[in-house]
Amino acid sequence: MDSSSKPSSSTVSRTALVLLRLLTFVFLLIALILIAIDKQSDDAGNQIKFTDAYAYRYMISTIVIGFAYNLLQMGLSIFSMVSGNRALNGDGGYLFDFFGDKIISYLLLSGSAAGFGFTIDLRRGDSSINSFTEKANASASLLLFGFLFTAIASTFTSFALPKKP
Amino acid sequence: MDSSSKPSSSTVSRTALVLLRLLTFVFLLIALILIAIDKQSDDAGNQIKFTDAYAYRYMISTIVIGFAYNLLQMGLSIFSMVSGNRALNGDGGYLFDFFGDKIISYLLLSGSAAGFGFTIDLRRGDSSINSFTEKANASASLLLFGFLFTAIASTFTSFALPKKP
């Protein structure tokens, strides 16, 4: 918006935002791969994979949506760095960042919590599928880190909100 | 902070905040009662209750913490209405509201998602405990509404943040 020449606190927090989004992106990518390739045969010879549990299907949906959002945000950041101004001008950009980060952070947390809520008790019930639930747990943990980075980004974009008159 | 005499937009949003916290409080109270009294004997005669699942134990913890936070916030609101000024003066009050609402809304959502993540798949596996899982589902739904109210309150308190210089 304003064209100050010295590296201000807004430039610092914008760089921090890009880093946080890059970290979220990487963690979500690994979480996606982990849960997508997670399959195992149990004692009875039945193959189980993530599509067998609603909790894991929901988890993978939240990962994909979070992944797409972070890709979009990084694209917008690169565009604004190259062109020198924000892709969304005026208050619209700040509102998009604020609500985007807020909603996506809620989404990622709900996916991770649903995955953990299902896996933790599943592991106590059936120890024959430990390798399956361990990979699912790892995926939910990475998703939780993705949430944490997005929650920090959401704090930045909350403070960047334009003050109401 | 400033003592404007006419009912400003800040007064309106403060009233909305109190209403949202009252709604959250009521929903969490019902959710707490529902999950706490939820017990049933299965076909084998074993009694199951919420303490048998980590997901439900986590859920009840988030309800209790959210309940305590909303009680505190309503107490502070009543104090500020009676005394005419905020209990926490300066920017501290706004920061407390902002981070409080943000963290508690994340907590409530994670509790609800963990409960749902466990219950949805439990219901598919064992139909003999339908009454048990239905009450747990109802409790998780009420908790989700509590989260929604807190998330809206969190949006209000984000916009009320003091603008950095």
TrEMBL record, chains A, B:
GO terms for cellular component: plasma membrane. Residues 13-149 form the Casparian strip membrane protein domain. Keywords: Cell membrane, Membrane, Transmembrane, Transmembrane helix. The chain crosses the membrane at residues 16-37, 58-83, 103-122, 142-161. Pfam families: CASP_dom (PF04535). The keyword Transmembrane helix applies. It is a multi-pass membrane protein. It is found in: Cell membrane. Belongs to the Casparian strip membrane proteins (CASP) family. Homodimer and heterodimers. This is CASP-like protein.
